[in-house]
C-alpha cells in the first residue's frame, strides 16, 4: 500500500469549514457530548415543530431501536425547496445534462417548487396518501428529483429501483413494499442506447398485484401502450394540477424512503431511512466534506437509483441550497472526454465519482482529459469501493492537475451518509485510505471473537454508537435487521467490511468480509446470482465468488455444475450470462463461468468458498487447509479448468 502523504494545502486550511484543530475539537465534542453536538447541528434545518430530544438509540440485542430528534416535525421537500425561495428562488437548483451533449437545462429553485407541488398534487389526485409506498423507476432526468420530493412533500415513502434492474427485480421490489403507484418513463437513454422502462414496468406489474397507478414521463417519445384506468401521462397529470401544495408535517422518525440492497443471503433488503436524522446528516456531511459554499457547482455522477444519488445528488445538496448537476449519460459517450467536457461546460467546482469510472477513463489515456481545461475544479471525491493508489494518483495528477484534494468517502446504503472521510481543510491525504471518521462516528476494529483491537490493527469494521443518518430497520423485517447488523458483535453496528487502521489512526477499507461482492461500486449478493443460475433448467448447482477485475474492481466468477448429460459449451456460457442479465439485470452478469463437475465441499456438504475464491483469483498455490474436504480430488479439476489465468 502506498504510504505517500499529501498535506492539506495552505489555502485550504482557511477556506474550508474546518482545519485540523477545529476538526479535532469538534470531533471530541461530538463523541463526548453527542446530544449537544447533534442538537446544534439539527438546527440547520427548518422544523415545523422543533425537537427537544436529540438521540435515543439502543443497539442492545433483541431491542435495537434508533431514534433521532423524535419529537420534532419537519418536511423534507420544504427544507430542500421552499426555504430557499426567498433568498435564491432564481438560482439554479438542478443543472441537467442529457445523454446527448446538445441536451441540457437549468431548473431554478422557484421552478423546482412548482414542479414538486404539481407532482405532489397529481399523486394525491390518484389517491396516494401519507405512508403509501411509491416505486420510482426512472432514468436520470429532473422528473426523478421532482418525484422524490413530491413523495416527501405528501409523506409518501419512495422506493427507487435502478433503471438497470430487470422486470423481475422490479417486481420483487414492488411486491416487498406493496407499492400502489409506480413512476416510470417511456424509455431511458444512456450512451445512445434506449432502455425500455415502460415495457419493463408492464412486465413487472403482470407478475404482482396491487399497483393502481403508473405515471409515465415522456423521455424519448416512444410509442408505449397505456393501460386504461391505470396508466397516466405525467405531462397530462401535472398540467392541470395546482402549483401550490402544503407540505405535510412529518414526524422526524416517519419513513422517507426505502432502498433495496443486496445482502449475503436471501432477497434484497429494503433499507429504511427516516426523515429528520437522515436529512440533518445528508446536508451536514455534504456541506463539510465537499466544502460546499454558496454558488458552487457541484456534480455527483451517481444514479439516483443508488444511495449516493439520494444523499448526494438530491437530498443533501438541495437541503443546502446548492447547484446540483444531474447527468443522464455515461463517462465514455460520445467520447471518453465527456466528464471533463461537462465540467468545462458548466464550470463544475466539486466533482464526485467512483473508482471504476476513473479506472475506465485511465484506460482511455491522458490526452482525452488534457484536451479539456478543468480549471473550475477545486475538489474531487471518490466513493463505492477502495480506490487503488494508482487510480488515486491519476485522478489527482491528471484530472485535478495536482491542485485538488480528493475526499475518499467510505459509507453504505445503510449509513445514509458518509462516515469515514477526509475533511479537505483538515485531513492530510494518503492515497487509498478513507482516512478518519466524520463527526459523531465511532469506528472500531474487532477480531472474530468481538475483541476490540487498539492502535494499528486489522479486523472487522464496526460502529460503536448511532449517528443521525443510520438506517432504522429493514422494511417489514426488524428481526432480519437485528440479525444482519447487530448479532455478530452485540451492541455494535457491523458494517460487513474488513479494515486496517494504521499508526496514524487512518482507516484503510480492505473490502467485504461477507458473501457480497462489489462490482463497479455496486453491491451484489453472491446468493442472488447463484439462485438465478440454478433456476436455469440445465444447471444443477452454482457457486459465485468475486475476483479482481481491472475496471470493475471485482468481477463475478461463477462455478456451475450442469445436470447430467448436459455439455458445457461456450454457447451455454453465453446463454447463462443472458439468463442472469434478464433475471436480475446487467449488473449481475457473470464475467467468467467455469463448468465444474463437482464443487469443493466439507463432509457436511458446505461449499468451501475460500478455495473457490483462491482459484478464481488464480492464487491456487495458497489454498490452505483442504483436509476437511469430502473429495479433495475436485480441487485439481477446478484448477485445471480455471478461467482466470493472469
Ligand atoms: C460498500 C457499500 C455508499 C456508496 C456506494 C456504495 C464499499 C463504499 C467505499 C470507499 C472503500 C467503499 C464498502 C461498503 N465502499 N465506499 N470509499 N472505500 N470501500 O454503497 O452499495 O451500500 O455498498 O461499498 O465495501 O460496505 P453500497
From TrEMBL:
One of its GO terms (molecular function) is acetate-CoA ligase activity. It comes from the Bacteria. ATP binds at residues 384-386, 408-413, 497, 512, 523. Its EC number is 6.2.1.1. Residues 23-80 form the Acetyl-coenzyme A synthetase N-terminal domain. Residues 82-466 form the AMP-dependent synthetase/ligase domain. Its cofactor is Mg(2+). The modification N6-acetyllysine is found at residue 606. GO terms for biological process: acetyl-CoA biosynthetic process from acetate. It is an enzyme of class 6 (ligase). Residues 528-606 form the AMP-binding enzyme C-terminal domain. It catalyses: acetate + ATP + CoA = acetyl-CoA + AMP + diphosphate. PROSITE patterns: AMP_BINDING. GO terms for cellular component: cytosol. Mg(2+) binds at residues 534, 536, 539. Keywords: Acetylation, ATP-binding, Ligase, Magnesium, Metal-binding, Nucleotide-binding. CoA binds at residues 190-193, 308, 332, 520, 581. Acetylated. Deacetylation by the SIR2-homolog deacetylase activates the enzyme. Gene3D superfamilies: 3.30.300.30, N-terminal domain of ligase-like. Belongs to the ATP-dependent AMP-binding enzyme family. Catalyzes the conversion of acetate into acetyl-CoA (AcCoA), an essential intermediate at the junction of anabolic and catabolic pathways. AcsA undergoes a two-step reaction. In the first half reaction, AcsA combines acetate with ATP to form acetyl-adenylate (AcAMP) intermediate. In the second half reaction, it can then transfer the acetyl group from AcAMP to the sulfhydryl group of CoA, forming the product AcCoA. HAMAP family: Ac_CoA_synth. This is Acetyl-coenzyme A synthetase. It comes from Hansschlegelia quercus.
Amino acid at each position: 500500500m502506498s504510504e505517500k502523504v499529501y498535506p492539506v494545502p495552505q489555502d485550504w486550511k482557511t477556506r474550508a469549514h474546518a482545519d485540523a484543530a477545529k476538526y479535532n475539537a469538534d470531533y471530541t465534542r461530538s463523541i463526548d457530548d453527542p446530544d449537544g453536538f447533534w442538537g446544534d447541528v439539527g438546527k440547520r434545518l427548518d422544523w415545523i415543530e422543533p425537537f427537544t430530544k436529540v438521540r435515543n438509540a439502543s443497539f442492545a440485542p433483541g431491542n435495537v431501536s434508533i431514534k433521532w430528534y423524535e419529537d420534532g416535525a419537519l418536511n423534507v421537500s420544504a427544507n430542500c425547496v421552499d426555504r430557499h425561495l426567498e433568498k435564491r428562488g432564481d438560482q439554479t437548483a438542478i443543472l441537467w445534462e442529457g445523454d446527448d451533449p446538445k441536451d441540457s437545462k437549468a431548473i431554478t429553485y422557484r421552478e423546482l417548487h412548482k414542479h414538486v407541488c404539481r407532482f405532489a398534487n397529481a399523486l394525491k389526485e390518484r389517491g396516494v396518501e401519507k405512508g403509501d409506498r411509491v416505486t420510482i423507476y426512472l432514468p436520470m432526468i429532473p422528473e426523478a428529483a421532482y418525484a422524490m420530493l413530491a413523495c416527501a412533500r405528501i409523506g409518501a415513502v419512495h422506493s427507487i429501483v435502478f433503471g438497470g434492474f430487470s422486470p423481475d427485480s422490479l417486481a420483487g421490489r414492488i411486491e416487498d413494499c406493496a407499492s400502489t403507484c409506480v413512476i416510470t418513463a417511456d424509455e431511458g437513454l444512456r450512451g445512445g442506447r434506449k432502455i425500455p422502462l415502460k415495457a419493463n414496468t408492464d412486465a413487472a406489474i403482470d407478475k404482482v398485484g396491487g399497483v393502481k397507478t403508473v405515471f409515465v414521463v415522456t423521455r424519448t417519445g416512444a410509442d408505449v401502450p397505456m393501460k386504461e384506468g391505470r396508466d397516466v401521462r405525467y405531462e397530462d397529470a401535472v398540467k392541470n394540477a395546482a402549483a401550490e401544495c402544503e407540505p405535510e408535517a412529518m414526524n422526524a422518525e416517519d419513513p422517507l424512503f426505502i432502498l433495496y440492497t443486496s445482502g449475503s443471503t436471501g432477497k434484497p433488503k429494503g433499507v429504511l431511512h427516516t426523515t429528520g436524522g437522515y436529512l440533518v446528516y445528508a446536508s451536514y456531511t455534504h456541506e463539510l466534506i465537499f466544502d460546499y459554499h454558496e454558488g458552487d457547482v457541484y456534480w455527483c455522477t451517481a444514479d439516483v437509483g443508488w444511495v449516493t444519488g439520494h444523499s448526494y445528488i438530491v437530498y443533501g445538496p438541495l437541503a443546502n441550497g446548492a447547484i446540483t448537476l444531474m447527468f443522464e449519460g455515461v463517462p465514455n459517450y460520445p467520447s471518453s472526454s465527456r466528464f471533463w467536457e461537462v465540467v468545462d461546460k458548466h464550470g463544475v467546482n466539486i466533482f464526485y465519482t467512483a473508482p471504476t469510472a476513473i479506472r475506465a477513463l485511465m484506460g482511455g489515456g491522458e490526452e482525452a482529459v488534457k484536451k479539456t481545461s478543468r480549471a473550475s475544479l477545486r475538489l474531487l471525491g471518490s466513493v463505492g469501493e477502495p480506490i487503488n493508489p494508482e487510480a488515486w494518483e491519476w485522478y489527482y495528477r491528471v484530472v485535478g492537475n495536482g491542485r485538488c484534494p480528493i475526499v475518499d468517502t467510505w459509507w453504505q446504503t445503510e449509513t445514509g451518509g458518509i462516515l469515514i472521510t477526509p475533511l479537505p481543510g483538515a485531513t492530510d491525504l494518503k492515497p487509498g485510505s478513507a482516512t478518519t471518521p466524520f463527526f459523531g462516528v465511532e469506528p472500531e476494529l474487532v477480531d472474530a471473537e468481538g475483541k476490540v483491537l487498539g492502535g494499528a490493527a486489522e479486523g472487522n469494521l464496526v460502529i460503536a454508537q448511532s449517528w443521525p443518518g443510520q438506517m432504522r430497520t429493514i422494511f417489514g423485517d426488524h428481526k432480519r435487521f437485528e440479525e444482519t447488523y447487530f448479532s455478530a458483535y452485540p451492541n455494535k453496528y457491523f458494517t460487513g467490511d474488513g479494515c486496517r487502521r494504521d499508526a496514524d489512526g487512518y482507516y484503510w477499507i480492505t473490502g467485504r468480509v461477507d458473501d457480497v461482492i462489489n462490482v463497479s461500486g455496486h453491491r451484489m449478493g453472491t446468493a442472488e446470482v447463484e439462485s438465478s443460475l440454478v433456476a436455469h433448467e440445465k444447471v444443477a448447482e452454482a457457486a459465485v465468488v468475486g475476483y479482481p477485475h481491472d475496471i470493475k474492481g471485482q468481477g463475478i466468477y461463477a462455478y456451475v455444475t450442469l445436470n447430467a448429460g448436459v455439455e458445457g459449451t461456450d454457447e451455454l456460457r453465453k446463454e447463462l450470462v443472458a439468463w442472469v442479465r434478464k433475471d436480475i439485470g446487467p449488473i449481475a452478469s457473470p464475467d467468467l463461468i467455469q463448468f465444474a463437475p463437482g464443487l469443493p465441499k466439507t463432509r457436511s456438504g458446505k461449499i468451501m468458498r475460500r478455495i473457490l475464491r483462491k482459484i478464481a483469483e488464480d492464487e491456487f498455490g495458497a489454498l490452505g487447509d483442504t483436509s476437511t474436504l469430502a473429495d479433495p480430488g475436485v480441487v485439481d479439476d477446478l484448477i485445471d479448468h480455471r478461467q482466470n489465468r493472469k
